[in-house]
Amino acid sequence: MSQQLRRDQLAEDLRRTAPLLRRRGETVSPVPKRVLQAFRASLDQHFPPPPPVPEEQLVEMTMNLLAEQPKDADELVTGLRLKSVRCNEQDVERLLNRMTEFGLIVEDAQAGASRAHRLTDAARRMLGLANPRAEVLSLIERQAGED
User: Fold this and answer.
1) 61 and 77 Cβ atoms separated by less than 8 Å
2) How far apart are CA 34 and CA 106, in angstroms?
3) Residue 135 · residue 121 · CB < 8 Å
4) Residue 140 burial (C-beta neighbours within 10 Å; 0-12, 13-18, 19+)
5) Distance, CA of 146 to CA of 2 (rounded, Å)
6) Are 108 and 114 in contact (CB under 8 A)?
7) pLDDT, tens digit, for every residue of 70-85?
8) How far, rounded to the nearest angstrom, does the alpha carbon of residue 35 sit from its chain's CA centroid?
9) Is residue 104 within 8 Å of 66, Cβ to Cβ?
C-alpha cells in the first residue's frame, strides 16, 4: 500500500512540475527586461550602491594596497571592493596605466606570468614608506630631545 501511495504522489508531483521542466533542446526563456529593471530598482532602493570615489582617493587607496606587496589588477579590484569601491578590471587597468605614466608604479618583473605592479621609490616617499627605520629613529630622537 505504501508503494502505491508513493507512486501516486510521484505521479502528482510530475504532473505539477512538468510545465516547469524544459524539453530537450529547448532554450531557456530569458527573464523579461521589465522584471530585471524592477529587480535592480528594488535592490538599489534597499541596498543603495556606494557613492563614487574621487580619483585622488582611489589613487591613494590603490597605493596603500600596493604598499603591502605587488599586486595584479584582479587583486586590486578585490581589495578595492572590500573597501566598498565599485570598480571593474578595466577601470583599474586605466588607473594603473595613468599611475605608470606619472611614475608612481612599475610592472614587477619578478611576479611571473601575471602583470603585477609595485610602487616606485617616489610613491613610497609620498606614502612615508621609503625608509621606515629612519622614520622611527628620527621620531625617537625627537622624543628624546623633548625630554
Assistant:
1) no
2) 46
3) no
4) exposed
5) 90
6) no
7) 898 899 999 998 888 8
8) 27
9) no
